[in-house]
Prior knowledge:
The protein is mainly α. It has helices at 2-23, 36-46.
Amino acid sequence: MLYQIGIILIVIVAALIVAKKFNANNDLIFEDEMDEDELKQLDEEID
């Protein structure tokens, strides 16, 4: 029974590490936070 608790704790720690790595890529910038030059540059890159 003790090894089952250990395995569960290892799985929980691994899930927390994976979730933290996915959450670290939260560097999104929204349109309303950009100035006109940045918006024009994005439009040119898309076209």
